[in-house]
Amino acid sequence: MKPVTNLHAVIAGQSAPPPCDETLGVRLMEARDGYAKGVWTISESLLNGNGVIMGGFVGAAADIVMAYAVTTLLRDDQMHASINLQTTFHRPATAGEAEIEASVEKLGKTIAYVTAIVRQNGKEVASATSSVLIMEKR
Q: What CA–CA distance (Å, rounded) separates 75 from 98?
C-alpha cells in the first residue's frame, strides 16, 4: 500500500500531489480559508463514445478540488472522506482546459458540506456538492 499524501503539504508546496490528481490532470492553483481553485487539463483519453468527457471524470475532478478546500480548514491530525457526491451537468466538457472552484459551505465537527463549479471557456460545465466525513487520522 502506498503512503498517504498529506494534502496540507501539497497546499504548502512541500509535497507532490496524490496520484489521482496527476492521473486526471488536475493541478491545484490556490487553497485557503475553505476555498480552492484548480486547473484541469483534460486529456482526450477521457472522451466517451459521444466524443465528450465522461461525466464521472468531471465529478472526480470536482471532488479533487473540493478535498483541498476542506483540507484548508482541518488540523494536521484530521482527515476526510467523501460520503456523498452529487454532480449536475450543464453542458458537455471537451478536451482542453477547465477551471474548478470549490468552497466549504458549512463545516461541522464530523461533516462538511462543499460545493464546486467546473467551467470551460468561461461557461459552466457542471456543479457538484459533496458531504464529507471528518475524522481523526489513525
A: 30
The three three-digit cell numbers of residue 58, written as one number: 468531471
Q: Coil, strand or helix: which one is 79?
A: strand
Residue 8 to residues 4, 35, 77, Cα–Cα distance (Å): 12, 13, 11
Which residues are registered as beta bridge partners of 74? none
**Nearest residue to 126 via CA among 73, 52, 67, 72:** 52
User: Per the structure block, which three cell numbers stand in for 76?
Assistant: 494536521
Query: Rounded to two decimals, what is the model's pTM?
Result: 0.95
User: Are the beta carbons of 88 and 126 closer than 8 angstroms?
Assistant: yes
pLDDT digits (tens), the chain, 138 positions: 566 788 999 999 999 999 999 999 999 999 999 999 999 999 999 999 999 999 999 999 999 999 999 999 999 999 999 999 999 999 999 999 999 999 999 999 999 999 999 999 999 999 999 999 999 987
* Burial call 44-65: b when 16+ CB within 10 Å, e when fewer: eebbeeeebbeeebbbbbbbbb
